[in-house]
Amino acid sequence: MATNRDEQIVQALASQGKIGAAQIAAAQELAERAGKSVVAALVQGGYVTTNEIAEVAESLGEDAEATGEPSSPHEPAAAKGQEGPARAGHRSPRTLRPTKTSLANYRVDPDALREVPKVVAEEHKVLPLTVSDQRLLVAMADKSDVFAVDAVRARTGRRVEAVEVEEAELMAAIDEYYKVQAQSLVSTTATTKDIEGIVRLDAGEDLGIGVDKAIVDMIDEGPVVRIVTSLLREAIRQRASDIHIEPGPEVFKVRYRVDGQLLQQTTLDMDLHPGVVSRIKILAECDISEGRLPQDGRFSTTVDDAVIDLRVSTLPTFWGEKVVLRLLDRSRVLVSLSQLGFSTDTLRDFERLIRMSQGMILVTGPTGSGKSTTLYSALHAINDETRNITTVEDPIEYEVSGINQTQVLPRIDLTFSLALRHILRQDPDVILVGESRDLETAEMAFRASLTGHLVLTTLHTNDAPSAATRLIDIGIAPYIIASSVIGVLAQRLVRRVCPHCRETCTATDMELERLQLTPEQASKIQFHKGRGCSRCRNTGFSGRVAVYELMVMNQELRDSIAAGANSSVLRQIALRTGMKSLRYDGLLKINQGITSASEVIRVSFAGDDF
Ligand SMILES: [Zn+2]
To answer: What is d(CA 15, CA 601) in angstroms, rounded to the nearest whole number?
Structure first.
């Protein structure tokens, strides 16, 4: 019925010369693409106005009445916000054409629009008009639709009163008014400091184009698409490692993890949440119809010539789906070892180790301590025509040309151990094993390191000497560890003091205690902190740098590992034979103004002389 009615309206508009065949065709195409009615598409395409449709619809309604159906008085509401003509209650909707009013007679109050989200409005064919404490006046295509009235009442907690309008006019109006609402929402948030950067970014790098243009563009391309794009671009601009999209009762929060710290970026109306989540799920090839189960996905995007890989994880929460995007910027790999923040001595020792022809090098630290970055930089340093470098990883975090990288795929049983077995038949010189999680993988990696290959891998341990005991726990024989490991690098990431607002300071007694420094020792160290400025968003920090502790194997350590010494004994030997501890490296970086006392304390672990 609605379709016939639509056709009548389209024909009437055409016969009045308001639209031509080309416009109808364009609207039909748009309607099909967007899943809308042709009439709604005509309005959206700007070919006709809602008023014109209302007029035509009204004239069609009159025609219908003129052909024999009982007439009823037309009395369009005159005053703004008043209800339309009340309908007599005894008509049969199938046989009578109800007299409908036109939305042209009503003002649509933005406060009322906010009461009902667009999805609900579309589903139930309801357009909120005005709102008061007790009452919500809505326009409906069929005001006898009690389910729709119930849904709106339940949602708003208000008594719902309805006027009836033509469905085509209503749907076109829902489209139009909610679009305006999204626009005003964006422009409101755009004035807040949080999203300012996003809108400005959209306006172009030179900032020459005004914010208004950006907002208009945002609407033109669909607010949701623009918002998602903006969130990604801004995250990349701020070098965020993760984006969190967290639903709540009214708004959803967007937070970025920058330099290891979560920072709230902006909040957006919950009405936009389903669209934003769906857009991300579509990009990540997740099932958008499934919102009750957690999902994983991934996609790539290019921003300013940098290829960014994103891993997407969704989790149903009380208020809706929470989405976390992890950003992997593969272009960041080409950081040379010398730029990572190694002290001169440590860098010299580490470069010597990675150029050895066989043995095992372990990089240890908690998740997010920058182990992968160090390993990629190491591979990059030795990547030349003379070596066959092969990796097995999960995930491949950077693409490095000249290196053969394999991604494990447990779904098809391509595990670390299976991949590694085949890599060994590929005449490798250097093998990177992303993680030695299980005994089978670790054993194979060790065997490779004893048979003429240089093997690099990671472990989760707090310090370098603990790597040996961890490997024994996994099930590797102590003598194998003793004979194959050539070095263990432990690391942490600390935030860099912002160079634009760095100043010297004194450490507090508490800080000295946590750093295990006597006042006499402390007097030899110059402490620094960032005062906070616009360049560092008042955090006092900008970027991160690693602190390292490199344990180079020697005979005494080998003998002790083979004899099953515990990690504190190994630690004492390592320190006595030249290892510079994480704490030492941290203090060095404090003194150089690279980081602060609080950062070194933050990454230090309790209970020993790190
Ligand atoms: Zn600063």
So the answer is: 79
